[in-house]
From TrEMBL:
Residue ranges constituting the EAL domain according to the UniProt record: 23-280
Organism listed in the record: Paenibacillus plantiphilus
Full-length numbering of the shown residues: 570 to 851 of 855
Record's subcellular location: Cell membrane
Protein name according to UniProt: Diguanylate cyclase (GGDEF) domain-containing protein
Length: 282
């Protein structure tokens, strides 16, 4: 790793602007974080509205920097887009997928009730030719049951008539993984494509849930997405549920699953294990 660093610093010259320097420093730091295991996954429960049971967990990456004190935990907003720009999202994303599958297997060994784990996939990752074979390899290496791995994709990745994209989605479905569209409603959706895509679930973005049930427009949009999902035979999940009122509304509209601070914030492994053992969060 050190010689790696030296190679990069060779390119330094005084005319380089601060942005470039910061970027190089960031790349160096994130590379080190990957090599030295400073990344960690937090897990946020997903609750089935009808049964009030926890049915899944979303894996969310955290960067735990070794320096003690405040700011020790760096959030994805601070590093995901830079990781995408610098290409480091590839090793990072691979690490996340492996860590999530290994954690599933670890919980299985401990005799925990099985919960599907969902992983956020970056557009940069999905766009690579090797994406499907990477998923296949990770499933094999970790002996992860494919239907217990959910990939959260976004509209911008899949809502194209692009043959390659459709082929990729079909191949992923053949592997048996669960596919969902994350942040649904915020991007460009074509209902025509949606109908033909082998997708299993829609996740309604938090920005719509925020003003439910009082905001007239957001409530109308939320109702429409739930109805659309039902018509297409897709599971519908609401994210960012913070109030009992939101939950009551979503239950009354038969939104299948909810996720948000009302149920639980994302938790570290040691925090979530006792809750999972009890089989509920109350
Ligand atoms: P997202 O996929 O929309 O994930 C949900 C985000 O909303 C998480 O933020 C979560 O902590 C937060 N959240 C959950 N419930 C509530 C709530 O009730 N209220 C509010 N205000 N927020 C809530 P987080 O963990 O900071 O992640 C932010 C984004 O970073 C994620 O948004 C996702 O797009 C991205 N991300 C996180 N982990 C990964 C990863 O492993 N790979 C990639 N490519 N992206 C990731
Ligand atoms: Ca997500
Ligand atoms: Ca996302
Ligand atoms: Ca979101």
């Amino acid at each position: 790793a050190k010689s790696h660093g030296r190679n990069k610093y060779q390119f330094f010259n005084p005319s380089m602007n601060e942005g470039t320097l910061e970027r190089l420093q960031f790349m160096y730091d994130l590379r080190r974080a990957l090599d030295e295991n400073e990344l960690s996954l937090y897990y946020q429960p997903r609750m089935e509205t009808a049964s009030k049971r926890i049915v899944g967990l979303e894996a969310l990456v955290r960067w735990i920097s070794p320096e003690p004190g405040a700011g020790r935990i760096r959030m994805p907003q601070e590093f995901i887009s830079l990781a995408e720009e610098t290409g480091l999202i590839i090793p990072l994303g691979e690490w996340v997928l492996r860590a999530a599958c290994n954690q599933y297997k670890e919980w299985e060994r401990q005799g925990m009730p099985p919960l599907r784990i969902s992983v956020n996939i970056s557009v940069v990752q999905f766009g690579r030719d090797e994406f499907v074979s990477l998923i296949r390899r990770i499933l094999e290496e970790t002996a992860m049951p494919p239907d217990m791995l959910e990939l959260e994709l976004t509209e911008s990745m899949v809502m194209k008539s692009d043959e390659e994209v459709i082929l990729k989605l079909r191949q992923l479905k053949e592997l048996g993984v669960f596919l969902s569209i994350d942040d649904f409603g915020t991007g460009y959706s074509s209902f025509t494509y949606l109908k033909h895509f082998p997708i299993d679930a829609l996740k309604i973005d938090r920005s719509f849930i925020q003003d439910v049930p009082h905001g007239v427009r957001d409530t109308a949009i939320t109702k429409t997405i739930i109805a659309l999902g039902r018509r297409l035979g897709l599971k519908v999940v609401a994210e960012g549920v913070e109030t009992k009122e939101q939950l009551a509304f979503l239950s009354s509209r038969k939104c299948d699953e909810v996720q948000g601070y009302l149920i639980s914030k994302p938790l570290a492994v040691e925090e979530i294990e006792p809750l999972l053992r009890n089989g509920n969060l109350s």
